[in-house]
Design a protein that fits this description.
Layout lengths: L12 H5 L3 H40 L4 H45 L22 H48 L6 H4 L6 H11 L6 H11 L5 H4 L1 H22 L2 H5 L1 H8 L4 H11 L2 H18 L1
Helix pairs in contact: 2-3, 9-11, 9-12, 9-13, 12-13
């Protein structure tokens, strides 16, 4: 016995036929099962009507009620058994018959020999006999297209990222604009209408040289004669502190008290060297301005405590 000829794989049949053969066979079998079920229901309705007529005939013949009920119960029992047997037998024959039908259809109707020349719908008009050079060229074109698609996707990602960054920067700029919106107030807009005389005055004032801080401090000291010397400025405080030190040295020399009393001659010689400003400048040169300021602050504090 020779083996059956090879057939086209079943996975290609839906592509060639345009539908799935198994689904078509399933629909046919379902229709047959529905017809068998309707036949069973029709037979059951017919037998129920027949039994009902038999019960009515028995009642009309003058039988008692118990006999009629017993006859009806027996008829219902026989009807159920008969319907179940009929349904089982019919479904069994339908299943066997359509199982053979399904197997026969798949082997004969929906079986295409492998040596049969068939052109698929999507291959219609296509020349499948291409030279090797042409095939290599087509593969190169496919690679180029894939590379272009990859580049387009990358560019799309970059555009999306740039759009998000631009949106973030726009939000930040809008917030800054809201914070600077006070510059649009009508009061500030009035400054734009200033005459040229104000601009010339501003230019002249801006060109003036800067003031000397020492002169400013001296002017402040003169302008405020009611204040005590150490309250005018830092320079006034230093001058006052040095003068207090020199005054204490003088008192020590004259009275002969304290440490200056034991060396009154040396103190007198030191006092005759220079004035208070000279001593202050010498101290700043040797110990620094910070040390002189600290010494003056301490002496001034002691003097103020004694006054």
């Amino acid at each position: 016995m020779s083996a059956p000829p090879p057939n086209v794989p079943s996975v290609l049949l839906p592509e060639l036929l345009g539908f799935v053969p198994q689904l078509l066979l399933d629909d046919i079998i379902n229709i047959a099962n529905d017809a068998a079920r309707e036949a069973v229901e029709g037979m059951q309705e017919f037998l129920e009507r027949r039994d009902a007529e038999r019960v009515k005939e028995a009642e009309a013949a003058g039988k008692d009620r118990d006999a009629a009920d017993r006859l009806e119960a027996e008829s219902m029992e026989e009807l159920e058994k008969g319907i179940n047997s009929f349904q089982t037998l019919l479904e069994s024959h339908v299943d066997i018959a359509f199982d053979f039908f399904e197997a026969w259809s798949l082997r004969n109707i929906f079986a295409i020999p492998a040596d049969l020349q068939i052109v698929a719908p999507h291959h219609k008009g296509t020349n499948l006999e291409q030279p090797t050079e042409k095939e290599a060229e087509l593969l190169a074109d496919i690679r180029d297209l894939r590379r272009k698609i990859h580049a387009q996707k990358k560019l799309q990602r970059l555009y999306t990222r740039a759009a998000r960054m631009s949106s973030t920067q726009l939000t930040h700029s809008q917030k800054r604009l809201e914070r600077l919106s006070f510059l649009r107030a009508p009061q500030l807009q009035a400054l734009l209408s200033l005459s040229d005389e104000f601009h010339a005055m501003y230019t002249s004032v801006a060109g003036l040289p800067s003031l000397d801080p020492s002169l400013t401090a001296a002017e402040q000291a003169i302008a405020e004669p009611g204040k005590r010397p150490w309250e005018t400025s830092k320079t006034g405080y230093l001058n006052w502190a040095v003068e207090q030190l020199m005054a204490r040295a003088k008192r020590s020399v004259k009275g002969g008290e304290g440490e200056f009393g034991r060396g009154s001659a040396a103190a007198a010689d030191a006092y005759g060297v220079g004035s208070a400003d000279d001593v202050k400048e010498a101290l700043e040169t040797v110990a620094g301005a910070g040390a002189v300021a600290e010494l003056g602050r301490r002496e001034g504090q002691d003097e103020m405590d004694t006054q």
